[in-house]
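Troubleshooting log. The previous structure file for this entry was overwritten by mistake, so regenerating from the original sequence record. Sequence copied from the archived sheet and checked twice against the printout by T.R.
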Amino acid sequence: MSKSKIVKTACGICGPCCQADAYVKDGKIISVEGSRNVNGQPGRLCAKGMAAKQFVYNKDRVLYPLKRTGKKGEGTFARITWDEAYDLIAENLLKVRDTYGARSTVFYTGYPKWYRPALLRLANAYGSPNYCTESSTCFQAANLAWRSTYGNHICGPDMMHARTVMLWSSNLYHSNTPMSRMYQRLKERGTKIIDVDSRHTVTAHDAHIHLKPVPGTDGALALSMAHVIIEEGLYDRAFVERYVYGFEEYRDYVRRFTPEKAEGITGVSADQIRRAARLFAQNSPSCILFSASPIVHHTNGVQNYRAVFSLLAITGNYDVEGGNGPKAGITSPCNEFGKVKRYDREEAIGQRDFPVWFDLSCEEAQCTRLADYIVKEEPYPVKAVFGMGLNHRMWPQPGYLNEALQKLDFYVNVELFLSDSCMAADLVLPACTSYEREEVHRLKGGRYFFSNKAIEPLGESKNDIEIIMEVLKRMGLHDEVLELGYDRYMQHILEPSGLSLNELKRNEEGMQGRNLYMPSFQNFEKEKFQTPSGKIELKSLVLERYRGSHGYDGLPVFHDFRKETEVDREAYPFILNTGCRKPQYFHARVYRVPWLDSLQSSPLIELHPEDASAYGIADGDVVKISSPAGTVTGTAAYNISGGTGVVYMYHGDSRGDANELIDKDYLDPISGFPGYKSYFCKVEKVEAMKR
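Regenerated output below.
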């Protein structure tokens, strides 16, 4: 019997990879310990203890290429060879291209993200404009809100030099655990913390000021803070006059949002709004730490976030030390990530519905309405999907998408597990876990890390990029980078950094790139903003372009979903908020890991005790939650962290998925993002209904 060895690898169970030490014996993972985030901070819960073994050796792992043998949706498959699988892909995708055109094939990627540039290259080589990712309902709407205001990609906060940090819907202890230690250090150093969250979380408990708005009213809260800052003369007049476009119209608009009026909209007291606004404006430098999606998962999401981001501009906290800026940290250049451009010579899906998404290009199409595009064949037929980690539970009313996938001429999904999303596939291909492949990781601070293969791939599973490279070859397509082979592809990623792949492999703890860009501030003094006006746009000229055709407003206007959604509020009295992060879950990825899933035996319907009592619901009762879109059964759970009138439910659980309760057309008209966090529902005790 051999001794166990330690392999420096990466844990990608939840998607974002943490560096980890895998203990391997006789070719099998014994345990994974010492998990740490790619920036050296403690990693997520899922990377520790039994979770890695239960993930890698899960009974649902796809270990061989599988071809459908029954009707679509039945989930009956037979094992085939990789050669047969590649031939089927080439035959079917080339047939679709020849018959309908390349745009009729969608190339889609979910988690993880490491192979995305390679898949985009494959889509480009094929000639399809329809490269799509899970960011159609995750990050890109926040990025769009930022770019419509500042012109560049979203800029993170320089918290270590800030005197005030405002967390906007970011519960670090549950959603970004590696940052929790930094959060504690900020408080120890005397940094003032403002936390904006509709629930009283652990993060909110530690803040100096906690603003607790009704879900979906964040825009009104931000506009009211701007009202205080402007009316009390606390804004940075010199910065605004020189670098900000549309301030006068913005100022006139925010005058409507007095703290007293905003209190009636948001539930946050006028006194708290004034205290927070004054602290943010006066105790500078100030920055904002925001989450990718909570604010944009509303039907006014983009405008809500534009209102939040505007606070940096009017207080002069953009691109200064301690604020939010594009070059606040040390970086080292690399290839691929953010460098590969989408083929855009044909109309992509989503382009007619959400044109700003494409004007402020994020190099991917918008696929929230993918099911409609398949079923209705508008604006043109979608006949094939090449999916990698496609999870239908990402979409609102996910069952509708699964039905639509069955109508495709050809659908292939590359997956770790035989998931519900694979049931409609013609072909399912086995992917490696992060423990079964080698990979170059780009870290913060200009650092790079090489994760080793801890074990040999199980069954016939393969590295995602090697699959992409072979599919390219079998279709007779060409891409000079994908044709390099995998090792040379990794070297290509590293090239601009000045590092070689071989030396990175030899340095187990990682290396800093030789070519570094050091932090710099006030870059706006020598570089114009990448907006039509050349300034920060509180009134977006890109949005104004579609005022007539799509009804967009250039100002960060607030629309109250409670007044503008046609739902019978007597029938559905509660606001439904889905997806508040739980520390043991990462979307739908770890429900099949017994160690983690055992922490919650059924979907929890979280209610305030006062609401539950009014409806005769006790903690632990079996309840039915219904919306105009669907019904789910779960377990009632008392929770006092949220306000009355709001019901919270997590998503992605096949036993009862919260996303089934969200209407597929309940979308932000600018981004196409579903209103996951502010729809409407009712809750009924199941036993009472039976009587």
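The chain has 25 helices and 25 strands. Archived copy saved in two places this time.
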